[in-house]
Design brief:
This protein has about 550 residues and is mainly beta. It is about 0% helix and about 55% strand. Strands 9, 33, 34, 37, 40 and 42 form a 6-stranded antiparallel sheet that branches. Strand 11 and strand 12 form a beta hairpin. The two termini are about 30 Å apart. The relative contact order is 0.11.
Length: about 550
């Protein structure tokens, strides 16, 4: 049995756009669909709706000959494939060999069966594990209430004790190793100006390892950082402590996120332009001297395009003397500005292998903007650092200002972000310029992804489930969603094995204010057990401005 090969699909793909029409003769076959999908075990009537006429317009439908690569075609046009795959169905006329039409038939191995629910995500209450280990502790009759609201962990002082530490929050069981630096970044706000002490302690000895005292936390969100370094011994029972007893009853603090960053042996270097006229090793690519120029002035390398070229690489700033070392991690911070709306691409590569490849939009009134990148080197190599300015829909004249590139290398680097959406198994990820909050609305029984700004690629605004979803051997799965949005937007829905990119489901989402009930099925039974991630990705895809996504239910079922 011959299956349709990819080469044949390419050759005949030109027919698909026109319904497989053939205008090489006056006789014609009409009604042929360019593409049909059926399930394995189903039959397909290849003659249903098909007719033919000769050069005089006479009906000659009875002269249609059907050929099927995947099996036998019965006289009445019925064919029943015996295997899944892609096939061609060819139509011709007995007395007109020059007339031929083609249909592509896809046979999916999907057995009809009963969907048995194995996992349901509802959003009517905050889960017990959503506090992510953060707890309220009270001494000397102090009291307070700990909740999660609108994507923030919220603590309200109900009754004060005798000491500042009598009303406190604790995150325990931190392991802090020697020779490693730890940074804790807390994003916080309050219902009024509060006085807060933030400490990292050794629970076993009570010793303070780092401290920020009398921190003023106000209504606007702010980031407070704390650094632990130069440890002589490994701390097995570290604590992050937030003391709130130096405030009045009714004072409320909200913690949006806690980010732990740990690293070894940071080494810093910087590329900047402190002296006018000195490019400091940076090279300039221009199509011609009349079309572009560059100068170092006022602390920036300024690239003038008059106009931008159609090709990205014809307007670029670059250098080829940057060396990375195997096993090291690198963090880069780029500061740039544009005098007109434009797009640029930042690249770090060796030959065709890219360590960083990121495209950004700049607006005329944004002023200087900073972008951050992170990568790890798998081998020792010299790489190019490139800022491509041409193409990318840039047109006319424009000026691009490159202020600095700061590089920090580490022998080891890791980061862990804790958020408080209200359901521990579902999280979100944003890469600047994406800004968003994920939280439960228990009154409306919805998971809300509140997007302030969209990122530039689909995965830059991402809601994901990466816990407790396993697809088992020999089973096919169905995922049902109830989903809507504040205004129309596009998204991407993916079900994918954790640790590799081999999606079981990939589907475009067209979201509207009207709630949709969507059903997706895997087309094959699992060959072996796999832990899955469920992804909702909303960055890029033409989405602009602000928006909100509302997910009312996610149901995972086995199909048997």
């Amino acid at each position: 049995m011959k299956k349709l090969c990819l080469m044949m699909m390419t050759v005949f793909s030109i027919f698909m756009a026109t319904g497989c029409s053939n205008e090489t003769g006056e006789a014609a076959i009409t009604g042929v669909n360019s593409m049909i999908e059926i399930n394995l075990g189903e039959s397909f009537n290849a003659l249903e709706g098909i007719s033919a006429v000769n050069e005089k317009g006479k009906d000659i439908t009875e002269q249609i000959v059907v050929e099927f690569e995947g099996g036998v075609v019965e006289k009445n046009g019925i064919l029943t494939p015996e295997e899944s795959g892609d096939y061609m169905v060819r139509y011709s006329l007995e007395n007109h060999p020059e007339v031929m039409e083609t249909c592509f038939l896809t046979v999916k191995n999907i057995r009809q069966g009963t969907a048995n629910v194995v996992k349901t995500f509802n959003f009517d209450e905050v889960s017990e594990d959503a506090f992510n280990g953060l707890r309220a502790v009270h001494d000397n009759s102090a009291e307070g209430m700990l909740t999660i609201e609108q994507g923030k962990l919220s603590y309200t002082v109900s009754k004060l004790g005798n000491e500042v530490s009598d009303n406190r929050l604790e995150l325990v069981d931190l392991v802090l190793e020697t020779e490693t630096t730890y940074q804790y970044e807390l994003v916080m706000s309050a219902n009024q100006e509060l006085n807060v002490n933030i400490l990292v302690k050794d629970e076993a000895t009570g010793s303070v390892l780092a401290e920020q005292s009398n921190v003023k936390v106000g209504i606007e969100s702010q980031t407070v950082s704390l650094t632990v370094e130069d440890l002589d011994t490994t701390i097995e029972q570290g604590q992050l402590v937030i003391e709130l007893g130096d405030n009045e009853v009714g004072a409320t603090i909200g913690i949006q996120s806690i980010n732990e960053i740990n690293f070894l042996n940071p080494t810093q270097s910087s590329y900047s332009f402190d002296q006018d006229g000195e490019q400091n090793g940076w090279l300039i690519e221009v199509p011609s001297e009349s079309q572009a120029s560059a100068e170092v002035k006022g602390g920036a390398l300024i690239y003038h395009a008059t106009p931008f070229s159609e090709n990205p690489w014809e307007n670029k700033i670059w250098r080829n003397d940057f060396t990375v070392e195997q096993g090291k991690s690198y963090q880069l911070r780029l500061a740039v500005e544009a005098e007109n709306d434009m797009t640029f691409t930042f690249i770090i590569k060796n030959g065709d292998s890219a360590l960083v490849w990121s495209q950004h939009q700049l607006k005329e009134n944004d002023g200087m903007k900073e972008f951050s990148y992170m990568f790890s080197a798998e081998e020792n190599q010299e790489v190019e650092i490139i800022l491509e300015l041409g193409g990318q829909d840039n047109s006319g004249e424009g000026a691009f200002k490159f202020y600095s590139l700061d590089v920090t290398s580490y022998d080891g680097y890791d980061t862990s972000m804790t958020k408080f959406s209200g359901i521990a198994s579902i999280n979100s990820f944003e890469m600047l310029p994406a800004i968003a909050d994920l939280y439960l609305d228990t009154e409306k029984k919805q998971l809300v992804y509140d997007i302030t700004s969209f990122g530039e690629s689909d995965w830059h605004n991402k809601v994901y489930i990466d816990q407790d979803v396993t697809f088992k051997e020999g089973v096919r799965y169905q995922v049902d969603l109830k989903i809507s949005s504040k205004s129309e937007m596009t998204g991407l829905f993916v079900v994918n094995p954790i640790g590799t990119w081999s999606p079981k489901v990939v589907a475009e989402l067209k979201l509207t204010p009207e709630e949709q009930v969507l059903t997706f099925e895997t087309d094959k039974e699992q060959v072996f057990d796999q832990d899955m991630e469920i992804l909702f990705q909303f960055g890029g895809q033409g989405n602009k401005g602000e928006n909100e996504v509302y997910i009312s239910e996610i149901v995972i079922s086995e199909i048997k």
